[in-house]
Amino acid sequence: MDVQLILRWLVTAIVIVVAVVLLGFVLQIAAVLLKLAIKFLVVLLLVALAVRLLDVFKSR
Questions:
Q1: What is the C-alpha to C-alpha distance for residues 54 and 56, in angstroms, rounded to an integer?
Q2: Hey, CA dihedral for 41, 46, 47, 51, is it positive or negative?
Q3: Residues 32, 28: Cα–Cα separation, whole Å
Q4: Helices of type H across 1-60
Q5: Phi/psi of residue 2, nearest 5 degrees
Q6: In whole angstroms, what is the distance from residue 28 CA to residue 23 CA?
Q7: pLDDT means per 10 residues in the chain (60 residues)?
Q8: Dihedral of CA 21/22/23/29: which sign?
Q9: What is the pTM of this model?
């Protein structure tokens, strides 16, 4: 094996490691945003339900 091939494999391995680390970071951010989005949607659902109930009681 020559030095150029070894360097190519090392650079490829470094790029793969960096890509995996970045993917893990992006997935952590996505998980946090997903939790926030679910909480926000639950709050919106409860508000919509409350508005609907108030509308039903007003119409009677």
A1: 5
A2: positive
A3: 6
A4: 3-59
A5: -95, 170
A6: 9
A7: 92 98 97 97 97 92
A8: positive
A9: 0.63
